[in-house]
Design brief:
The chain folds into two domains: 205 residues, no CATH class; 157 residues, Nucleotidyltransferase, domain 5 (2-Layer Sandwich). Helix content is 41%, strand content 15%. A hairpin with a 4-residue loop joins strand 9 and strand 10. The structure holds zinc ion. Zinc ion binds next to loops.
């Protein structure tokens, strides 16, 4: 508490208040921020870390330090208001880290790089917030999205020890075991170590995927963010993220029922939460894998790829359908697609821009769902059902998502 007050005092010259130090009730935790900072900027390849018990304790300490300085920065910025002197930036924060370390042996025992990078990440998150692409960075809590970042990685810091085992050198900790795969890129400059809610450790190396060359035939494709499927191509192909297995769905349902019955704060509740987190994490892995593969496939098969601009929200598209053609099983579909819609689309577009560098056209998605791709008439009532589109002017009938993909292709300047 002493340190916290002192720290904040340095930044904004405002007396400490006890109640300010208590984290406010956080309703939205900063996963959007995390993904925004680390995933949208650069491609990431993730690998499982397999630390020993002793090493795990040390990794948790790094996480704790990162969380501590991040939360201090959050606290400091909470006082900043329009018209005040600028809130402290990264340079000022680094100076304060030095002071805080001098004042607190616990912090000084940790890695200064971990602590400085946590502030750098915070700076990124703040600028994302100012640019209005992400929400305001919020408090980090123990056990949720724990992680830290290491930069200035040297060539010898990631090494392979056997066919499936590698090692990673972490400052102040030493070598940590890593499940090796051929995808571990050479020339790694930085990495981020995370621990998910299921307790799995992962390392993500920052590496931009290598661009893939197109077929050179001038082939153009329009890709639509489908509501019923994950993506529809103007070629008529419908692509979907592999669905969870039936057994997984059953397990998830059972676990959720158990969670509803478990008492708050009980160890049983903790176990059930971990089980649910594991199932959800598997779903995320599957989606990310699918995005990677789909990106590669499209980049290889087409010279130009037209997509909906993920920054423009498409209000006309939803599982609800239209007034005259309401969707069926709306809630279920919305649930199935929420993940793809929320995170997947932006990530797919980012991957495409990396793999098909300079060959991606982003188009305004408005009315793509209601316009007939054959005659161009915009007709709200052309959606016979969620999946079917039938133009009342020219009689053109097609899958609604494919019709939208054709419109996207058309909007990119290719009829
Ligand atoms: Zn028509």
């Amino acid at each position: 508490m002493l340190l916290r007050s002192g720290w904040r005092g340095i930044g904004c010259g405002r007396p400490a208040k006890a109640e300010v130090c208590r984290p406010p009730a956080v309703t939205h935790w900063c996963l959007p921020t995390l993904s925004g900072v680390f995933v949208s900027l650069i491609g990431m390849s993730r690998f499982r870390l397999q630390p020993t018990l002793a090493r795990e304790q040390l990794l948790l300490e790094h996480c704790g330090h990162a969380r501590f300085v991040w939360n201090l920065a959050v606290e400091q910025h909470a006082h900043w208001q329009l018209g005040r002197k600028a809130a402290p930036g990264f340079t000022e924060h680094c100076r304060q880290v030095t002071q805080a370390r001098a004042a607190n042996p616990w912090l000084a025992a940790g890695s200064v790089m971990v602590q400085q990078q946590a502030l750098k990440d915070f700076g990124h998150a703040m600028s994302n917030f100012v640019r209005r692409t992400h929400r305001r960075p919020t408090w980090r809590r123990r056990g949720q999205s724990e992680g830290f970042r290491i930069v200035s990685v040297k060539p010898g810091d990631v090494r392979r020890v056997s066919r499936k085992v590698g090692e990673l050198r972490v400052p102040k900790i030493g070598w940590v075991r890593l499940r090796w795969s051929p995808a571990v890129a050479e020339g790694v400059k930085s990495y981020r170590v995370t621990r998910d809610r299921a307790g799995r450790w992962q390392v993500a190396f920052a590496a931009v995927p290598e661009p893939i060359s197109g077929p050179g035939t001038g082939a153009t494709v329009g890709v639509d963010r489908g509501v019923v499927v994950s993506a529809a191509l103007s070629t008529g192909e419908l692509l979907s993220v592999p669905a969870p297995r039936d057994s997984e769905k059953v397990r998830l349902r059972k676990s959720q029922r158990k969670l509803a019955r478990a008492q708050r704060g009980s160890s049983r509740r903790g176990e059930v939460k971990i089980a649910i987190a594991k199932l959800k994490a598997r779903e995320t892995d599957r989606r990310k894998g699918w995005i990677g593969k789909t990106g590669t496939r499209l980049a290889r098969a087409f010279d130009m790829i037209a997509v909906e601009d993920p920054k423009i929200s498409n209000m006309t598209r939803s599982a609800k359908g239209t007034v005259n053609a309401p969707g069926q099983r709306v809630r279920q579909k919305a649930g199935l697609n929420r993940g793809m819609l929320a995170n997947g689309w932006g990530l797919l577009v980012t991957r495409l821009e990396q793999k098909a560098a300079g060959r991606v056209i982003k188009v305004d998605p408005r009315f793509t769902g209601q316009r007939c791709s054959a005659c161009g008439v915009v007709d709200r009532e052309a959606r016979e059902s969620q999946a079917a589109f039938r133009c009342r002017s020219c009689g053109f009938a097609r899958n609604a998502d494919v019709n939208a993909a054709l419109n996207i292709r058309c909007a990119a300047g290719h009829a």
